[in-house]
Amino acid sequence: MSAHTQTAASEIDQYLKGQEEKGMLRFITCGSVDDGKSTLIGRLLWDSKLLFEDQLATLTAESKRVGTQGGDIDYALLLDGLQAEREQGITIDVAYRFFATDKRKFIVADTPGHEQYTRNMVTGASTADIAVILIDARKGILTQTQRHSFLVSLIGIRKVVLAINKMDLVEFKEEIFNKITKDYQEFAGQLGFETIQPIPLSALKGDNITAKSENTPWYNGPALLDFLETVQINETKLDQPFRMPVQWVNRPNLDFRGFSGTIASGTIRVGEGIVEPSSGQTSTVKEIVTFDGNLEEAFAGQAVTITLNDEIDISRGDMLCALQDRPATADQFEAKLVWMNEEELLPSRNYILKLGSSSTLARISSLKYKVNVNTLEHTATKTLALNEIGICNLALDKAISFDPYAENRQTGSFILIDRFSNATVGAGVIDFALRRADNIHWQSVDIHKEARSEQKGQKASVLWFTGLSGSGKSTIANLVEKKLHSKGKHTYLLDGDNVRHGLNKDLGFTDADRVENIRRVAETSRLFVDAGLITLVSFISPFRSERQMARGLLEDGEFLEVFVDTPLEICEERDIKGLYAKARAGEIKNFTGIDSSYEVPENAEIIIDGSKASAEDAADQIIGYLETKGFI
Questions:
Q1: How far apart are CA 17 and CA 15, in angstroms?
Q2: In what order do the strands lie in the sheet with 534-538?
Q3: Which residues are part of the catalytic machinery?
Q4: 3-state secondary structure of 460
Q5: Contact 137, 58 (CB under 8 A)
Q6: Please, are residues 80 and 111 in contact by the beta-carbon 8 Å criterion?
Q7: Fold of domain 237-322
Q8: Going by DSSP bridges, is the β-strand pair 267-269/297-299 parallel, antiparallel, or unpaired?
Q9: Where are the domains of the chain?
Q10: CATH class for domain 449-628?
Q11: Per the confidence metrics, is the pTM higher than 0.85?
Q12: Of 10, 21, 176, 243, which shows the fewest CB atoms inside 10 Å?
């Protein structure tokens, strides 16, 4: 190898090493519509000479074709990559861009300003260290500015750049800059920001983007890029206790058993003690295995496989943690929740909660209030709509390990997933564990369900009758109970109308109330099954999710879904109470089958054709099923 080649190779190695050693800053741009977020980042990339020739050529051509600057360079097009964004001149999705200067590497998330895309903004903010909040100097602080500022504080970002943009359109007047700065600082005083750096900008013209502008001689602060290159960020992930959610148990052969995952926070070394906090099992690290070879030490952000010196029971969803600094473990906690779905939150419904690699069923046990993000006031509510934020208590099917979000963003945040559509419907951050469960213990009793059932000569079960109002389910359930009674069987009938006179008299007929209605009845029917009874439940129960929840409370084979399949037109013909007529006239709201949906069962054990079978025949069909299956 020639001396020239060796020198070139050495220079390349030094350059790459320098790039590796640079710190990384993640930041987000947010604010109201048309405040210039995409233009700001585009201009930052342009002025920093961080664009390739093909990008410059494409930008020039696109600016002439779909730009908003009369043929001049439209810097926003660098970020607005979707065709719909370019056609409408708005940002819809989160656009991420990587760039680097001599001092630091950056990942910027350009987020939408429109309210309906608030969920996208939350996604972009979830990994950011700094928020650049833009304000149009002509308009001052707007509702969406306040909304995004609140969300930024909710996510845990503590340093903010107040980018007062379009100063060229107000003649770079100092008094306008000072007034907006003062107004924002008064508003943001409640949000807990550590740093608010106001900067007067013109993203379009390039003032105070990469260098101080001559148009603002009265401004003594840094240019935007100077601030981003020098602002101190806490490397909290390394300073925090060791946490690694287990994503996979790696068992290629009998001689190797490792636990694979990405380290969420802290460091771990060979020989150090670890604990799986939910079970309390402990061990020490034997090896830290990676694709490139074994390590003596691993850090937050690294994907590794850890082997232990002891055989302990650890599965996907568990968490390996520092032995001397354990996370909380609980099945109830208080959290802040951002609702991200078109369909409203139904507090008593079961959702899948995913935290790290752990998944479990969870429901909102108490929705305390929602936050008016414009005024930060707390408002009583029974549900949350798209983009609304609430403070709530969650109850989980099993205890999970976590840290409060204020202490660890990685292990203190979660998402909620719809059980049927698999769509992400909410994102939340955990405030603290609810210790009420610590004071409640299951009381052991000597007489159990099997003994009670055997004494009665029957198999305890739930017959869950579902169908539209007027389908005949209550009539059929009543006949089935009479026939069982004549056979000497022990039963109880829970009817929808009757229960609403007592246990559920406080509930209305909104979707949220219907969900809570079924939750209470399902819990009650579980107690009756424990008593050894054949329990007949006759409720419209329009949602599959709640019928599945009721099934899940019982052991396999104890829940029998009876779908009384009667067409809507026949139910209306039988409308003795005139309910359908009132619903059609708009006198009754949220009536199932008219302005509230009914989700047909997909795998009911018993299906009754309500348009053909008489109530007597239907009852005999059900009794025959119970005899054939050994329930009676």
A1: 5
A2: 491-495, 534-538, 461-466, 559-565, 606-609
A3: 541
A4: coil
A5: no
A6: no
A7: Elongation Factor Tu (Ef-tu); domain 3 (2.40.30)
A8: antiparallel
A9: 19-230, 237-322, 328-436, 449-628
A10: alpha beta
A11: no
A12: 21
338: amino acid identity, one letter: V
536 CB neighbour count, 10 Å cutoff: 28
- State how far the Cα of 523 lies from the Cα of 462, in Å rounded to an integer: 11
Q: Do domains 19-230 and 328-436 have the same CATH topology?
A: no
- Measured over the CA atoms of residue 181, residue 182, residue 187 and residue 190, the dihedral's sign is positive
Rounded distance, CA 201 to CA 531, Å? 72
The mean pLDDT values, 10 residues at a time, for the chain of 632 residues are 57 52 82 76 72 52 55 52 40 66 84 65 78 93 86 87 95 96 91 93 89 94 93 72 93 89 92 91 94 90 93 91 90 92 91 92 93 83 90 93 89 91 90 76 79 92 95 95 95 93 89 90 95 95 92 94 95 86 87 90 94 93 94 90
Phi, psi of 130 (to 5 degrees): -130, 145
CB-based contacts of 578, cutoff 8 Å, min separation 6: none
pLDDT of the residue at 83? 38
CATH architecture of the domain 19-230 equals: 3-Layer(aba) Sandwich (3.40)
DSSP code of 501? T
One of 2.40.30.10, 3.30.450.20, 3.10.280.10, 2.40.37.10 is the CATH number of 328-436, namely: 2.40.30.10
Bridge-partner residues for 332, per DSSP? 395
Category of 27 on φ-ψ map: left (φ > 0), alpha (ψ -120 to 50) or beta: beta
CA 593/CA 574 separation, integer angstroms = 14
